[in-house]
Amino acid sequence: MRVRWAVLICALAFPASTYAQAQSDGHWDAYKPRTLQSIIDTHGEDIKRLNSEKKAVLLTGDSFQSQVKLVYSGKTRPLPAEHGVLLDFWRKMLKDQAPSADEFATEVLFKEGAAERWIVVQKPLLDPLSREVKNGQTVNSYVIWIGAIRAGEHWEWLFAMNGFDPR
């Protein structure tokens, strides 16, 4: 039996890929200071609309390019299956501007205030991050929002790190 997904894609008037723009042009100034929680809060009404669905994904045309202060834990894990499903939907939305399938395969645990957040980190950043940043150190992180996926009774929010400054 094939599982049906409810996919809500909002705000498609925005460019389809600010990811590609930031990567190719180095527009780090497009990353605005904010918190990850503020992005989650912004999508509260969208989540309410999808809550009746057993399998649901939320994507937007806005990646909310953000400069976020995060505390590095040094802990990593492979990308969980539901995050892989969300990344596949995101890559399909971006089409030819999407990063390769293996670009985001590892998540790193960070803290934002009291909240722990697993953030998928670009493959080329993994080694420099572990070499340049100590456990417990705050880093200025350049993060985009990928989307959200319903996992059982709760929502998983997926953010991706495109750069960092350990100072």
Q: Brief overview, please?
A:
The protein has 167 residues and is an alpha/beta fold. It has helices at 18-25, 36-42, 44-50, 81-94, 123-132, and strands at 6-10, 32-33, 56-60, 66-78, 106-112, 115-121, 138-151, 154-165.
What does this structure look like?
By secondary structure, this protein is an alpha/beta fold. It has one domain. It is 28% helix and 39% strand. The protein contains 5 helices and 8 strands; from the N terminus they run βαβααββαββαββ. It has a 5-stranded mixed barrel with strand order 4-5-6-8-7. The longest helix has 14 residues. It starts with 5 loop residues before the first strand and ends with a strand.
> Approximately how much helix is present in the residues?
25-40%
Assembly annotation: single chain
Q: Please give the count of helices.
A: 5
| Strand portion | 35-45%
Say how many strands there are.
Answer: 8
The rounded distance between the terminal residues' Cα atoms is: 51 Å
Question: What's the pLDDT, averaged over the residues?
Answer: 85
List low-pLDDT spans.
Answer: 11-25
- Order of strands, main sheet, comes to 4-5-6-8-7
| Bulk shape | globular
H/E topology pattern: EHEHHEEHEEHEE
Total domains, how many? Answer: 1
> What is the makeup of the main sheet?
5 strands, mixed, barrel
Radius of gyration: 15 Å
Derived structural class: alpha/beta
